[in-house]
Structure formats: C-alpha cells, structure tokens
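Our preliminary data section would be incomplete without showing what the modeling component actually yields. Below, a chain of 299 amino acids is followed by its predicted structure, encoded as tokens that our downstream tools consume directly.
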Amino acid sequence: MAGSSFFVRCGYVDENAFAMRTLQVLSAPGVGCEMLYREAGRADAPVLLWLPGMGMPARSYLPLAAALAEQGLGVALHEWRGTGSSSERAARGADWGYRELLAEDIPAALEACRRRFPGAPVLLGGHSLGSQLACLYAALHPGAVRGIALVAGGSPYWRCFRPWGPMLRVAFAAAPWIARLRGHFPGRRLRFAGNEARGVIDDWARSGRTGRYAAKGMSHDLEAALATQSSPVLALRMDADVLCPEASLRHLLKKMPRAPSESRVLDDSTLGVHADHFSWMQSPQGVAGHVAAWYERLL
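Predicted structure:
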C-alpha cells in the first residue's frame, strides 16, 4: 500500500567500521529500499531521519550517523528512490517526481522510524536537495516532526548564484530536455548527481528557474504550505560552499517566516576539512555537535 512501510528482514552492515542495523521499507507496490539506522544510548533520545542530497546513496552518510550517535541521537538514513539500495532505477519506463518522494517515500521512512523508535521525538534533516524536501514535507504535515536540520542546503533559484547564475538558468532549462531525450537524466555521465528520474529533474529545474516549489501531480500549493511551516529549523551552511551560497539558504528560509530558525556558518577550522558542499561529510563531528546542541535548546 502506498505510503505504508514494513520490515521484511533485519540485519547488520559494517562499512568502514561504521556498524548500522538495516531494515527494508516498502513505499509503493514493488518499490522498496534498505534503510540504515543506528540506535541511541538511551530510550528517550530523539531520532533524526536523514534525507540525502540528489544522487547520494545513504551509505555516504555513515560517518555522520556515527557522529550523531556519539552525541546521543538515534539516526535513520533514508534512501532515495532510484539510488543505492532502492529497488527502482530511473528509465524511460520508470519515472517519478517530488510527488512520489513527498507522498510515498518519506512517509514510509517516517513510519519505519516510529515503529523502530516508538515514542521517540522525530527530527527531520537533510543535505542539499534533501534539505529542501525536508522543509516541504514538514510544511505539508504540520506537527509531524519536532524540528528540521538543514546542512549545506538552500533553494537552487538561479538568481541566488552570482556571478554564474545566468549559466545556471540555462542549465535548468536544458536538464529536463536532456532527461526526456534519454528517458532519464544521465547524471553520472555528466558528473552531476546520479541517474535521475525525469520527474525529479522537472520539479527540481522548475524551482531553479522560478524560485518557487511545485510538484507535478500534487494539488497542494507548496509555497503556501511553506508559509505556514512552524517547526523549528537549524541551518548549517559551509563557508566555502559555492553550491549553497548564503543567498540560496536565505531564499529558502524566507519561505518559512513562521518557523523559528537558527543559522550557523561552519569554516575549515570548525570542521577540520575544507568547508564546502561535500567535504564536511568526511569529518561530520562539528555538524553533529551543532545538531545535538540545537535539539537540547528545543527542550
């Protein structure tokens, strides 16, 4: 049943010494993935459901999960449809967009978290595109999560990127056409994201061209929903992140005027690595510390 989840097996994986439990989640008929999770040290600890960036498999965030667990948080790593352990792969005969991600996949992952961590406060977090979808889901489901943690995330609106915004605008116009011609967006070949579904690229490129969110096939006004979103937001921006500059983050946060928000800029000295869009993932202790401290302030 769409939007429901169940566990068909439970086991362990150990990659680069980061041990995680696994469970299988079904979000639509024939569509499933393996969600990685790690328990906290105490039963009343919050659990953070983490939404990866575009084309990023869940396993990319194993160091982050370990760092968050060290801070006392439970963690579940969502797997996007078409990526990593997902049973689906984008193709001419297999397409989806933000509607499926928001109405089927994220709800299934949240249900899995609530079953595995009964009674625990749920936080929603994300990187890059995952941060945008975290905000959209919370906006569509008031009260569903205790707070939203955004890491290296913001709106892709081309006007937020100077001086190369006009080139980005051209890319946002071209990407959907490339996806339609190929049957999917060949991100691996183009060295941007993964091989993405046409619908995801359509919805993403539209937000890049217009600065506004919409999902084909959804009747909801996503911009109006964001305007009423009131869950607290933590926004962590990387100092040298050209893929998410200050204007990009500010554009996203301005869409949620009712949400109490905190913003922090992390630099090389704080992270121990170059403070760009991806390098923080190699040394996520600083990010984990900020997330844990933020949650303590929410109590």
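Residues 10-93+110-156+224-298 form a domain with the Rossmann fold fold (CATH 3.40.50.1820). Residues 98-116 form the longest helix (19 residues). Preliminary results of this kind motivate Aim 1 of the renewal.
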